[in-house]
């Protein structure tokens, strides 16, 4: 059993979101004068993008679902510290984040702004993600990773050899739906599947027994997990091992995608 430590890419920036943004940021057209993107109040994606924009001195507009004014999460406080422009919108506006008309309106509001979809899950996100597979040593048979928007699992699948396989852990209720999200990025690869037994009720849902599992894990392991992504993956692994879901001698890698920033307690 091995763990690919993408949580270790940066102390606060989520490794998975950094992988997804890497190609886009490295290939930014010179005409782009700002970046616009979307997320919730604890978004690992907005956090990673905000950090990158701050580092590269690119103005960043974060469109945030809900109004956190005066009640900022640690994530939003980091964005403010990094001089991001926060735009709080109501749920009905946020729901239009992929609609043509709304995007055209944002293009007018932010001329020469590059609009990055929620989660950083544009198709070129796959390039940066698939690189992580090449970095893994020694050889492995199966890689396990969380699935939300699907771009991470799709990028991993792109990096696999035909004899390797990927097992996704759905972190939200989405049987069928999550498969379609992943497939849209693929060409007909079949060496993957998603299990839907470990979403714990839905996205960011964390029953007490999951929280307890994470706390116990964190006291005895040399690295930390959180209940939204990595906690569900490690819990699933424990369960699957108990059920004898793997072949004898199967070499397994768990991808730790990071995301620990979202679990920080509020201090203000
Ligand atoms: C966003 C995120 C994921 C899910 O990745 P998708 O590409 O949306 O499936 C997993 N882990 C962490 C830490 C994330 O922030």
Describe the structure in your own words:
This protein has a 5-stranded parallel β-sheet. A 4-stranded parallel β-sheet has the order 4-3-2-5, sandwiched between helices. The N and C termini lie far apart (40 Å). 37% of the residues lie in helices and 17% in strands. The model has no long low-confidence stretch (mean pLDDT 96). The chain is built from 10 helices and 9 strands. Helix 1 packs across helix 2 and helix 1 crosses helix 6 (125-135). It is globular, with a radius of gyration of 18 Å. It is of the alpha/beta class and 268 residues long. The longest helix is centred in the first third of the chain and has 13 residues, at 44-56. Strand 6 (142-147), helix 7 (151-159) and strand 7 form a beta-alpha-beta unit. Pyridoxal-5'-phosphate is lined by residues 14, 16-17, 44, 119, 121, 146-153, 229, 257-259.
């Amino acid at each position: 059993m091995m763990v690919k430590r993408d949580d270790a890419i940066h102390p606060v920036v989520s490794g998975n979101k950094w992988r997804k943004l890497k190609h886009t940021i490295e290939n930014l057209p010179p005409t782009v004068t700002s970046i616009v993107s979307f997320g919730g109040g604890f978004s690992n994606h907005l956090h990673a993008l905000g950090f990158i924009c701050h580092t590269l001195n690119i103005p960043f507009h974060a469109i945030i679902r809900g109004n956190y004014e005066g009640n900022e999460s640690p994530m939003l406080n980091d964005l403010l510290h990094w001089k991001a422009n926060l735009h709080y919108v109501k749920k009905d506006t946020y729901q239009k984040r992929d609609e043509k008309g709304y995007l055209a309106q944002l293009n007018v509001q932010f001329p020469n702004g590059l609009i990055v979809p929620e989660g950083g899950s544009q198709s070129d996100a796959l390039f940066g993600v698939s690189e992580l597979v090449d970095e893994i040593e020694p050889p492995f048979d199966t890689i396990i990773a969380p699935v939300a928007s699907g771009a991470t699992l799709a990028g991993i699948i792109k990096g696999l050899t035909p004899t390797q396989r990927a097992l996704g852990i759905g972190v939200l209720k989405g049987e069928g739906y999550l498969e379609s999200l992943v497939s849209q990025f693929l060409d007909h690869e079949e060496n993957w599947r998603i299990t839907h037994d470990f979403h714990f009720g839905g996205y960011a849902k964390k029953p007490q027994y999951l929280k307890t599992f994470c706390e116990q894990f964190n006291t005895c392991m040399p690295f930390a997990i959180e209940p939204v992504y990595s906690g569900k993956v490690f819990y699933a692994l424990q369960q699957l091992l108990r059920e004898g879901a793997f072949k004898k001698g199967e070499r397994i890698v768990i991808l730790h995608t990071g995301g620990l920033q979202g679990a920080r307690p509020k201090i203000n």
